[in-house]
């Protein structure tokens, strides 16, 4: 993939008191380069339970390629492409929700648990241009384009 048309990609998940933090981190790491640092913020839930927010902002082109390569493994990638107009907002942000349990098991599925938000490069910053750029990036990641 010659160019990555994103300014950054944010990944975020929550680790609830009933979950093993290492396993939740492993699920998030499934989408990241090996050495990538994950931010942790500990919060308290409504009932006093501990909730750890794990997040990562990927800003390098190589790091974003790793995320996109993982997304290319998504069996519902055609569905994502069909829904792209709804998945990109007017601020040129692309959104996906991914299955945390599947990610822990080394799979990529749409579902609950991990939120992905990518700021799409679009000049001019218009919804239609952002959708086109996101489509191109996803299609290239899914193909064997080695330019």
Automatic annotation (TrEMBL):
It comes from the Archaea. Signal peptide: none annotated. SUPFAM superfamilies: RL5-like. Gene3D superfamilies: 3.30.1440.10. InterPro entries: PAB1135-like (IPR002739), Ribosomal_uL5_dom_sf (IPR022803). This is RNA-binding protein. It comes from Halonotius roseus.
